[in-house]
Design a protein that fits this description.
The two termini are about 105 Å apart. Strands 10-9-11-8-12 form a five-stranded mixed β-sheet, with helices on both faces. A five-stranded antiparallel β-sheet has the order 15-14-18-17-16. The radius of gyration is 57 Å and the shape is flat. The protein has six domains: about 150 residues, D-Maltodextrin-Binding Protein, domain 2 (3-Layer(aba) Sandwich); about 90 residues, 3-Layer(aba) Sandwich (D-Maltodextrin-Binding Protein, domain 2), CATH 3.40.190.10; about 100 residues, 2-Layer Sandwich (Beta-Lactamase), CATH 3.30.450.20; about 120 residues, PAS domain (Beta-Lactamase, 2-Layer Sandwich); about 100 residues; about 130 residues, Histidine kinase-like ATPase, C-terminal domain (Heat Shock Protein 90). The protein has 22 helices and 28 strands. α17 packs antiparallel against α18. With about 800 residues, it is α+β, with helices and mostly antiparallel strands. The relative contact order is 0.04. One of its GO terms (molecular function) is phosphorelay sensor kinase activity.
Length: about 800
Amino acid sequence: MLLRLATLIFCLLALPAWADAPAPLTLTEAQRAWLRAHGPLRVGIVLQPPYAQFDRRQQRLSGANVELMEWLGQALGVSWQWQHYASQDELQAALRAGAIDLAPGLLQTPAGLRLWQYSDPYLRVPHLVVGERSHTGAVELDALEAGSAVSVASNSPVLAYLRSNFSNLDLRPSPDEQAALQQVINQTARFAVADEAQLSRLSRLQEFSELAVVGDIGFPLLLRVASRRDQPQLAELIGSALRNLSPQQLNQLHDRWLQIQYPRLSESPGLWQNISLLLLALLLASAAIITWLLRQRSGLEKRLLDARLQLSQQLAAEEALRLAQFAIDQSTVGILWVNWDSRVRYANAAAEQMLGYPAGAVVDRPLADFEPGLHMDRWLGLWRRARQPEEGALSFETQCVRADGSLLPVDVSISFLRFGESEYLLVFLSDVTERRRAHAALEESEARLKGIAGNVPGLVFRLERAAPGAPVLFAYMSEASQGLLGYSAEFLSHADRGIRSLAHPDDQADYRAIQDAALAADRDWQWQGRLLTQSGEQRWVDIKATARRFEDGRVVWDGIVWDISANKAIELALGESRAQLRELSAHLESVREEEKARIAREVHDELGQVLTVLKLETSMCELAYADLDPGLQARLDSMKKLIASLFQLVRDVATALRPPILDAGIASAIEWQARRFEARSQIPCLVEVPEQLPALSDAKAIGLFRVLQEALTNILRHAQAHSVEISLRAQGHQLCLRVSDDGRGFDPAAVHGSFGLVGMRERVLMLGGTLSLDSHPGAGTTLCVYVALDEETEQ
């Protein structure tokens, strides 16, 4: 009840604070834009209770100025970024450094007007005269007799005011307001002057409980909100927000933080001492009475506890007996109590249901009615064995005859029991019909699986790991291992052998790396390679294994080993045939290039010599006979033109068969071919070749040159390009020829069967290199050819 009352009082006291929350201020769009552009605004505050104080445990600020700024933030719809300082000098330094935007609780001074823009006063803090509580009447400082001692804080702005207006007083400066009040307590000063804010804080201290306010000097502190002078918009917003606050709210702020509070009566040490003595006397009297009552009650309580204990033990025994009887009756295991004469003395409901008898029909029947094999001699033998402690429980499996004559397979367990003066054998019956059916189904499933695995044309296996970190073992391997590898499944399933032990020495590392990575990551794996049979024969196999994970952490891999020796032989033969065809093609190409070179030399040398002699003979004829017949001169000129044309034709044929520039190196040949392409197509061709290019074999140089010729021919026919770039550079141990154009491009997949591309690719393959083609419709084409540099060249 007291807790509820305190909660209600707290809510009633807090209600005015909630009710006086400031209403939001209506801002223009320009003002909102300014706040968004300059947010968050930084508020600098000096830590001086009760205006501002910092709670280190809760990491939050509180005080009159903090609460005022929170009201202004609610009215403007902004959040402040607080910066607190220990003194006004640090606050002024932060302003000059541009670290703060506004500060509450400042006094307007001529020096401050150069740095700040001040708002209208929002709080009036009077300076009060404090004296002893026994003083009567209000005190007027100018009415005091001359030489009256008045203490005042030396850092207070009121000190100069008192000196200039009250020359009759003996002013005594003190370090702070607390020291000024202490002088009044010590009677070294008659009165003290302090502002209401500091007096509200100090009046709560017990040492100043005998002091009271006796007058007002008429010099209040006018607190304002100061903002940076270079932000007049902020000063306008602060002024509007202050005008939005009601006088009731400012009075509430004053009463909450600046109201002077004197120590309450409950804080007096003497009062609490008297209350403590009274409570001690009441406690001693109560203790004496309670001791007498406890002695009177102790006997009754002991007897009552004994009676309750006996009653609880009796109830517990009865409850345990009922639970045991219920558990036996509702058990799924049949329970029989059998006497020495093999007759049943008790049967639970499960036993009656198993044997097919109604309730109570099993009692007094001999066991031979249910199991004909338990005749009296066998029963007595079981009785003697069960009574021996070292024998323990006897168990066996049999078939019981049910009431309808059907047979019920059961597991029988017999234990000896002595109850009072009587001896019994406890017979436990468990129906194993479902277990036998499941066992039979499991055997049939295993037989079917073995039959399927045995007929699969490959080796079926299962790897299993019982738990993370445990070794991986063979859980199953089909008997096909004998026919495939010559080893039995039992031999290969050993932990030190397995399939990996049969891998060919050249394939051993690859097999182990693939399998170990798959087993470590619990994922599928596949491997193709050679295994060695027991007879030493190599067989190509394809191994695939699929991983499965179980909730208990177990992982299994079901896999199969296929014999792909025949397919691999065909694949190797096909690869060898392709290699031979490529070698033959390379040889034919080499022979053709040599034949072209020979024909080019013969055309150039033989026909060149004949044409030179023919030209000389024509010139001699012209010198000897041209003047004899005017028509002969025309015929000779015509013959000379034909000879010149034939000279050019011979050079063109020889150049087409083998350009002589190839003898100067592949770099010069590329530049020569690019210039011929420019002259023929009028397409600019940019060539980039190194000055020092490693020497290249004649076959590779001719191959690269022919690929370049074919590429430029395709560009001329199909690309519709505006420019072509050709580069040749050495990259490590390879030489790269790159031909790029900015033509219309094409889809390489759509022209997969182009003889030009196929010819270039085959020519590069014959050189032992690679060719890549990058092209997209509308994006040009780039052809790159990579061939290896000759080893003797690299050295």
